[in-house]
TrEMBL record:
Molecular function GO terms recorded: amino-acid racemase activity
Signal peptide positions (record): none
PANTHER family named in the record: PROTEIN DCG1
Protein name, as recorded: Hydantoin racemase
InterPro entries: Asp/Glu/hydantoin_racemase (IPR015942), Hydantoin_racemase-like (IPR052186), Iso_Racemase_Enz_sf (IPR053714)
Organism from which the protein derives: Nocardioides luteus
Phylogenetic lineage: Bacteria, Bacillati, Actinomycetota, Actinomycetes, Propionibacteriales
Protein family membership: Belongs to the HyuE racemase family.
Coiled-coil blocks: none
A Pfam family recorded for this sequence: Asp_Glu_race
Length: 263
């Protein structure tokens, strides 16, 4: 008897109508690195998370919860929220009974198994306070010890997929920022805080003297795949005793009504 594939939704915060070069390349990359018997489907959010800041994170996070609830109803085995900031990640876990994996949380935890001191390079300085709060929330302040920032919009990153000189400029900035973290903070693992540069550099060998350059999307994908097996073995995706206590159906329905009512 053929075993049906494990289906994992990759919930991006990019817009399918605007960011096709990125999404097509992402789908190909996920198919390339997927474990045997695992298939990924990529979906986005419209409008995309281009207005960098807390309010946009909230709006996209709420929309992602809607997509995650729909994914469970469609029979997906797990959802990987492909947005390093993990907006509304905890809330999403209370709304469904399948694993919901955050790109940021999963990759940072996995990176801690690769080295002692981790450094992040994020898209824009606006995210620096957010990432520091993330790191503290996950209890990683003694491990993820430095965060530096590009000054790069999502659209600029996406356009670099078809522009070698633009990619080289982004890569040079990443290496410079990462090297500074190695020298000043003693980091031994560096990675981008997000999937845009991770995908840009997926086929490249980025070297930073003194540190391992990790791909956060690869780390998060492996965590998502493991979470399906763990959930099946334990009979639950998370503990329902506290932080991720299951939301009532009325609470879920009210959120879905709110999101649909804004369209």
């Amino acid at each position: 008897m053929n075993t049906p594939p494990t289906r994992i939704l990759y919930q991006s915060f990019t817009d399918p109508a605007v960011h096709q070069p990125y999404l097509k390349r992402l789908e190909a990359y996920l198919a390339e690195i997927a474990a045997p018997g695992v298939v990924y489907e990529v979906r986005g959010i419209s409008p995309a998370d281009t207005q960098l800041g807390r309010l946009s994170e909230l709006r996209c996070g709420v929309q992602s919860v809607e997509g995650i609830v729909a994914a469970e109803a469609e029979g997906f085995d797990a959802v990987l929220v492909g947005h390093f900031q993990d907006a509304c990640l905890y809330e999403a876990r209370t709304a469904v009974d399948i694993p919901v994996i955050g790109h940021g949380e999963a990759s940072m935890l996995q990176a801690c198994m690769l080295g002692g001191r981790i450094g992040l390079v994020t898209l824009d300085p606006v995210y620096l306070p957010w990432h520091r709060e993330q790191i503290a929330r996950y209890g990683l302040s003694s491990r993820v010890v430095d965060v530096r920032a590009f000054r790069l919009t999502p659209d600029q990153a996406v356009s670099a997929y078809d522009d070698e000189s633009a990619y080289q400029s982004i890569k040079d900035t990443f290496v410079s920022l990462a090297s500074t973290m190695v020298q000043e903070s003693g980091v031994d693992v560096v990675m981008s805080a997000g999937g845009l540069f991770a995908l840009l550099s997926a086929d490249d060998h980025v070297e930073v003297p003194g540190a391992l350059v990790a791909n956060p999307t690869l780390l998060a994908v492996r965590q998502a795949e493991a979470s399906v097996a763990i959930s099946r073995a334990m009979g639950t995706p998370v503990s329902r005793g506290g932080t991720f206590a299951r939301a009532t159906q009325q609470a879920v329905d009210e959120l879905l009504t709110l999101v649909k009512g804004t369209r």
